[in-house]
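As noted in the main text, all predictions were made from sequence alone. Below is one such record, for Ribosomal RNA small subunit methyltransferase H.
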Amino acid sequence: MLPGSIPSAAIYGSAEAPGSGRAVSCARFRVRRHAAGSVLSSRAAAPRPRRAAGPYDPTPGFRFPSAKPFFAASRRGRPVSRGAAPAAPHVPVLLEAVLPALAIEGPGLAVDGTFGAGGYTRALLAADPEVRVAGIDRDPTAITAGAPLVTESGGRLRLVPGRFGELDRLVGEPARWVVLDIGVSSMQLDRAERGFSFRNDGPLDMRMSAEGASAADLVNEAEEAELADIIFHYGEERRSRAVARAIVEHRRRERIETTAQLAALVAGVVRPEPGSPIHPATRTFQGLRIAVNDELGELVRALHAAERLLEPGGRLAVVTFHSLEDRIVKQFLSARSGRAVQASRHMPGVERPVPKSFRPVTKGPVGPSEAEIAQNPRARSAKLRAAERTDAPTPEPLTSLETLAGLPGAAARPGGRR
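Prediction:
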């Protein structure tokens, strides 16, 4: 996710907004076609999810000290939007909490695992003149647009194309600080040709890296139960079965190729909640986007990669925007700080000691201040969690998180509303 990432309600628009053998794969779904063009899938309809929690109210009295006023001028007036060029400063969400949580001081390497438009990277470079930064992004347009910032940094910044789930391999040297801003970016959402949003009609793409299967491939090739599963669990859409059924019925007549087509189709079966500004297709778009980009699986891999990369005393800060992401970060840090019980895989009923590889820096999640929300409403659902790496050896990966990031088993429980 790029700096200044936004919650799904703001991402996809409001109720007033307009509405071969290829493999589509991620940690949770797989779609395959026969030579004749039919689809194979083993998924069935999914159980009903809990509603996502509302914006988190930070612990009363908990406040970070103010961050350096690096972005003060650009934060006056209207919220800063993220364009492709990094010439003007961008305002990352929760910056005034992230910088103190990282405690940047002295020489060392900082890793911005989600470079985007360079907002966090600019702040890291400004925090201390001895800090070097490695910026990672899977979107080739972000790497290209960041070239001027590389020049401005005077050799202190290098940009690396790739997925942040492989950040330890991509960076190749120990780091003192890692920051991750999870999800999709304004820069991607504001470009109709990327197909992330239905605010402007465009091709139904949604690929962050512009590689692999697109959302159109998934929508037009996956079987009905698979689509319902994805929309239900990743989009938390209670009418997922009705949406999937409508998609399948429509594609029998013609392919679904644009964001406006899909948004109108979903709006025909999902009624907006009374008084809500959220477009009925918001959750469906979120679910498809997460599946196409394997966002939750990538987050799990990134947390383990940061654990391997950070030197003792190094710090990790992760900003999330919805409950699915935050739940993974919370469980990872709880397990790694010794707050979660872990059973032995050889003797499941017996607890086993696990090295405490992190100690908490934040007491639970930290949300935006009222002032930040007033300046940038897109920050409303953001949550920050941060921790410090100990000198304990790196434990085995948490396989439970892969399960949490994936789609539940097909036979778990009856699914959502029809």
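Confidence is low (pLDDT under 50) at residues 1-89, 410-418. Strands lie at 24-25, 30-33, 39-40, 108-112, 131-137, 157-161, 175-181, 310-320, 358-360, 383-389. These features were considered when defining construct boundaries for the mutagenesis experiments described in Section 2.9.
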